[in-house]
Design brief:
A seven-stranded parallel beta sheet has the order 3-2-1-4-5-6-7, with helices on both faces. The protein is 38% helix and 14% strand. It has helices at 17-27, 39-51, 68-80, 107-128, 155-174, 200-210, 219-230, and strands spanning 5-9, 31-36, 58-60, 85-88, 136-142, 179-186, 241-244. With 265 residues, it is an alpha/beta fold. The protein has seven helices and seven strands; from the N terminus they run E-H-E-H-E-H-E-H-E-H-E-H-H-E.
Length: 265
């Protein structure tokens, strides 16, 4: 990654998957710009950036606001001119609607979840591609709940399914510009986002007990996969969902240590 520059969007604290990927990129020579949605997160991003001795850009970007994404990339483009990669590590839904059934999701929460968790990626690809004159790579984060029913994942599963479909269409759109678009579907890992999912400890237990490796994935392992997907090591890979889940995706889901929850297979 020496000589490459890129934008990391969606890191909230040191447990974020995006932070694990950022550290690997930085360790291999990349120059990184971070974005933040509000002042509270900015303080954390400033501290994290300092921790990896990253004298870099830290720019505001609330993806739920009209024009915010375009403005952010204009700011970064004005300083760098061009860049080589973008990581979209952004998702949001009302945690009160990540319990019970998906059928109870409200219209407002559905629209906001899709806007922040899915459409923001499309808009980011559109705006970022204007500054990726030499090609590059754009990566987002998904989860197995995009194609299997996961207890209490609810509308986030629907949003991630739409996100994965977006990856394929965006890969086709940006391929002629030599810009690759992919996703990582990470296994269960404790982050600020996952803490909002009801009974998340059950999901952690399912992954641990049913994956071929009999354990959960670690942040550093996802970071290494992010490095692969955003570097020239994956130069012929686009439109793909790359699973990093200790093999959990290859086996059927069953309820382990959670007899009170019946999980559809």
């Amino acid at each position: 990654m020496e000589g490459k520059r890129g934008v990391i969007m969606g890191v909230t604290n040191e447990s974020s998957i995006g932070w694990g990927i950022a550290k690997e990129l930085k360790n291999h020579g990349a120059e990184i710009a971070f974005t933040f949605p509000n002042d509270a997160i900015k303080k954390r991003i400033d501290a994290l950036s300092d921790s990896i001795q990253s004298d870099t850009i830290v720019a505001p970007c609330d993806v739920s606001k009209d024009g915010a994404i375009a403005s952010t990339f204009q700011e970064i483009g004005a300083q760098w001119g061009t860049f080589d990669f973008v990581l979209h590590s952004i998702a949001f839904s009302d945690k009160n609607q990540l319990t019970g059934g998906y059928i109870n999701t409200t219209r407002d929460n559905f629209l906001n979840t899709m806007l922040v968790s899915c459409f923001s990626f499309t808009e980011i690809c559109r705006e970022a591609s204007k500054y990726m004159k030499n090609g590059g790579a754009i990566l987002t984060l998904s989860y197995v709940g995009a194609n299997r029913v996961i207890p209490h994942y609810n509308v986030m599963g629907v949003a991630k399914s739409a996100l994965e479909a977006s990856v394929r269409y965006l890969a086709a759109d940006l391929g002629p510009s030599n810009i690759r678009v992919n996703a990582i579907s990470a296994g269960a890992i404790r982050t600020a986002a996952s803490s909002g999912i009801g009974d998340f400890h059950y999901i952690m237990n399912w992954n641990k007990n049913n994956s071929p490796l009999r354990r959960n994935v670690e942040q550093k392992e996802i970071g290494k996969s992010g490095l692969y997907m955003l570097s020239d090591l994956s130069s012929a890979v686009t439109g793909e969902v790359h699973y990093v889940d200790c093999g959990y995706n290859v086996v059927g889901m069953k309820a382990v240590d959670a007899p009170d929850i019946d999980v559809p297979r």
